[in-house]
Amino acid sequence: MSNQSVQTVSTSGDKLKITLAVLAAIAGVVGFFVLADQSVLRIVALVAGLVLTVAFMWTTESGQGFLTFGKEAVRETKKVVWPTRKEAGQITAVVFGFVLIMALFLWGTDKILEFVLYDLILSWKK
Questions:
Q1: What are phi and psi of 31, to 5 degrees?
Q2: Is 59 within the bounds of a domain?
Q3: Which residue of 48, 71, 88, 114 is most buried, as measured by CB atoms within 10 A?
């Protein structure tokens, strides 16, 4: 994990860039739907809006923080010891077995309560 302190203060330039990024994303999506009759141009409008959004966000502190977070997440994922195929199969079998046992237990409990309430206490016959 990172020992960097979190700062919530951002410059007005960052706020402007974030605003421009949001507007570029909205413009790309709107362009995609407005140009519905032109298949190639609508894809270009959407991709251009998203590329501009990424370009604007890349230069902000928030964008750099997100990039740092992504890099750290990938690094932490590489540290995970993943189970082997055999272990994963065994764990899955245990989970399915437990679910089956719980289903039978809940079904049995329901039937016992149904018998006690309807047949013994209320004396209703089905």
A1: -60, -35
A2: yes
A3: 48
